[in-house]
Design goal:
This protein is mainly alpha-helical. It has one helix and no strands. The termini are far apart.
């Protein structure tokens, strides 16, 4: 079961990282 869920979990983590990166870059542009 975990083997099947691994790719989905990895994608969610990647999306979270990308979102955090976009937020930090946007904050940097605002100041």
């Amino acid at each position: 079961m975990e083997g099947e869920n691994a790719p989905f979990r990895q994608r969610m983590i990647e999306l979270d990282v990308l979102r955090g990166f976009a937020v930090t870059s946007a904050r940097r542009e605002r100041t």
